[in-house]
Amino acid sequence: MKIFGPISLSAFFYYIFRSISIVLLAFLTYTECAFITDRFTVEDGRFDMKIPLIGSSIQADYQFSDILTITLILIFGILLLYLLSNIFKALKKTVIFNKGIIKNLKLLTILNLIIGPVLNFLIHYPIMHKTEFRNIHNLILLIIFGMISLFLTYVFQKGFSVQSENDLTI
Amino acid sequence: MSIVVNLNTVLAERNLKSKELAEMIGITEANLSILKSGKAKAIRFSTLEAICKALDCQPADILAYEKE
Question: What interface predicted TM-score (ipTM) does this complex get?
Answer without folding.
Answer: 0.76
